[in-house]
Specification:
The chain has 301 residues and is α/β, with parallel strands linked by helices. The protein has eleven helices and 16 strands. The strands form three sheets. A seven-stranded mixed beta sheet has the order 6-5-4-3-2-1-16. A seven-stranded mixed beta sheet has the order 7-8-9-12-13-14-15. Helix 8 packs across helix 10 and helix 10 packs across helix 11. The protein is globular. The two termini are 14 Å apart.
Amino acid sequence: MQLTFLGTAGSWPTRERSASAIALDMEQEVVLLDCGEGTQRQFFQSPVSFMRVRRIFLSHFHGDHFLGVPGLIQSMCLNNRTEPLDIYGPRETRKFVDMMLNLGHFTLKFQVSAHELAPGDEVDLNTYTVRTARAKHSVPTIAVRVEEKMKRGRFDGEKARGMGIRGRDFARLEAGENVTVANGSVVTPQMVMGPARAGRSVVYSGDSAPEGDIVRLAKGADILIHESTAAKELEKDMNDWGHSTARQAAGVAVEAQVGTLFLTHFSARYPDPSPLEEEARASFAGARAARDLLSELVRQR
């Protein structure tokens, strides 16, 4: 599970930052969280291929979070994509996706499906799930939690060898088969596997003032990505516009007891987001300011 920030700007791109977009590599596919203008170009500068994007989750329909979708789809067409693409978002997603698909004269070579999600919905996607919560913004907005399903326990190779397992029997045990060893005894997978492990989890707030539903969604998450548009001296204005300060993002992280907080969606007032990082770290030591093209392995806390 690899996290790559493609864009960390708030409202519009700047010299330092592209508009909001985050790629989450789930190994078998890439999930894209928001897709602001210029996202396709950011992919070319990142370690992630846009052709592996299987699903896009849009937090809301302000331009800096979705205007990159038409260009990304056109690039996929020009690169002969045939796999389907699913786009999820809050209410009116179907209307907006239909509008985007009719913006240009290009031939769609693969199926694009739109799905509308309400706060509290859950999507089961084979090896992971996505749950939603209400975000507090000026238009309908959802926060999402992407979480791997429970993983099998770790295989104890040394213990298996001590029980007489040899050669291909290791693979059979790992695949869930019982194995009869040379002395006639039966070794079951349960004898050499540790307990099942919880999957890794990433929560993305989208644009939002501090919101209790997001705290509950993020409870115990390995990573929380929370918008941090400005510093605390602008708190009232930020909240009136449906945004958070770095201090408030840190407060959400503390209350939710997450492992790491990444700040994003920075106002153009802050060419360097270090002051926002410092403000958040005063309350939550695990706070970090995301930067365009920063790529991090998601580790369990």
